[in-house]
Amino acid sequence: MCEKHRTESAREPSAVARCGCVGQCKPADARRAVELAVAERCRATHVPCDPDALSDALLVTSELTTNAILHGGGVTDFHVDVVGPGVSVSVSDGSDLLPVAVSPVDQQGRWRAGGRGWPIVCRLAHDIRVTDLPAGGKRITAVLPLP
Fold first, then answer.
1. From the CB of residue 25, how many other CB atoms can be counted at a distance below 10 Å?
2. Which helix (H) or strand (E) holds 81?
3. Residue closest to 60 by CA, chosen among 147, 141, 146
4. How confident is the model over 104-116, as pLDDT tens digits?
C-alpha cells in the first residue's frame, strides 16, 4: 500500500453523496458520474474545468473501479462528491485485502502486464483512505485536487 496514506475502520455510513452506479458499476459508469459531478461544480461556481485535473480524476476512477472488479469481486458501492477544491471518489468492494503495488518486472527481469493501477492512484491522489467495512470488504476513497 502507499506509505503516505492510511487505513481506518468504518463506524458509520459515508457522508459522501451516492452518484451514478446502481448494481454492477462499470468503470465507464463511474467515469461518467465523475464527469457530471465535476461539470456541475464548474457550472455552479462559474469556474472553467481544468481538463488535466478532470483527466487525472477519470484515470483514478477507472483504476479504482477496475481494481475492484479484478481483485475485489466487483464494485459493491460507488460515491463521488466535489468537496471544496477537490473531487472525492469512493469505490467499495467485497475483499478485505489491502491494495498492493507489485514490481513491474518479474523475478526473471521480464516486464509484467498490469500492476500499474495502484501506483497511479497513489501518485495522482492528494489523499487516499482505505476503510474496512463493518459487513466485510473495504472502501477506497481518493481525493484529487480540482484547481
1. 21
2. strand 75-83
3. 141
4. 788 888 887 777 8
